[in-house]
Amino acid sequence: MNMFSCSDNKFEVTSQVQESFEEQGYVIVKSLLSEAELRKLQASLESDSELLKHSYARADGSGRVSRMALWKHPGKDISGMIARSEKVAGTMEKLLGGEVYHYHTKLMMKEARTGGQFVWHQDYGYWYSNTCLFPDMGTVFIAIDKADVGNGCLKVLKGSHKAGRIDHTKVAGQIGADLERVEMLKTRLPLVEVELEAGDALFFHCNLLHKSDQNNSDRRRWAFLIAYNRASNDPILPHHCPQYTPLLKVDNSEILNCECNDLSGKEFVHPSDDISLKD
Fold first, then answer.
1. What is the rounded distance in angstroms from the CA atom of residue 179 to the CA atom of residue 119?
2. What is the rounded CA–CA span in Å between residue 199 and residue 215?
3. pLDDT band at 171 (very low <50, low <70, confident <90, very high)
4. Pairing, β 100-110 against β 221-230
5. Is the dihedral of CA 230, 231, 236, 240 positive or negative?
6. CB-based burial label for 229 (10 Å; 0-12, 13-18, 19+)
7. Is the pLDDT confidence value at 276 over 80?
8. pLDDT at 20 over 70
């Protein structure tokens, strides 16, 4: 079982949750964000032209594009409160087995009928190039909109994190996992389509193979992804993502309490600075 629920605005990492993450490489948490938290996040992102000014297009090699904005530090706005909250950062600390810090956050935007695909890859396939020496890293994918097969939800190979890091090269104009190796793993591992309701979240290990298809629906698919690194895995060399920076966690109640719209301190990243996307 990989699906669990957040209740009373809290999420407990039980032994079953931990075992599922370690064995399958991911867990799904239903309603990680409450309806009120989700509405507040949506309103902030949709009305915050300053944040969207930092977004840029990512071509998928097949004539489609997705847009994304990426920043280094959580900041003081609602997106930062979510990234620093106990039910998000605290959960990832337990799943990864130690103190974590904020590696980056990104807003991924696949618009209706135009949103592009992302090829099979592992996050550590990129982060390895950033001199993070160990795969003690993970990502929280929070659905801002309903994500299903029609609008290009994530697909994962369950348990593929146990295969270790796979070589990444140019694939369809992107940097992706060696497709021959991926096809081999498909013969042994189940492919799971991760369909999520808005507010649901996927916590996944940095070596889990995942991809997403183009959005051919009439519905957009926005998602909010927060990446964490173990404090003990401080990258050797400076790069476009932070080296160890202590993360000040906050109570979950601070998400709804947040009235700050100040984006200073986030340090937005331009794609030309992203060394992990270069072949």
1. 9
2. 19
3. confident
4. antiparallel
5. positive
6. buried
7. no
8. yes
What pLDDT does residue 60 have? Answer: 83
**209 Cα distance to chain centroid:** 13
Could you tell me which of 28, 50, 47 has the C-alpha nearest to residue 39?
A: 47
Say which amino acid occupies 172.
A
Distance between CA 103 and CA 176 in Å, rounded?
Answer: 20
User: What tokens appear for 16 in the block?
Assistant: 């079953």
Q: What is the pLDDT of residue 279?
A: 47
- Tell me the average pLDDT across 128-147: 97
The strand order across the sheet containing 221-230 reads: 3-5, 26-30, 201-205, 137-143, 221-230, 100-110, 65-71, 56-59
Domain ranges of the chain: 32-277
Residue 142, pLDDT > 90, answer yes
| pLDDT score for 2 | 83
CB 95 within 8 A of CB 23: no
Q: What is the mean pLDDT of the chain?
A: 94
Q: Which CATH class is domain 32-277?
A: mainly beta
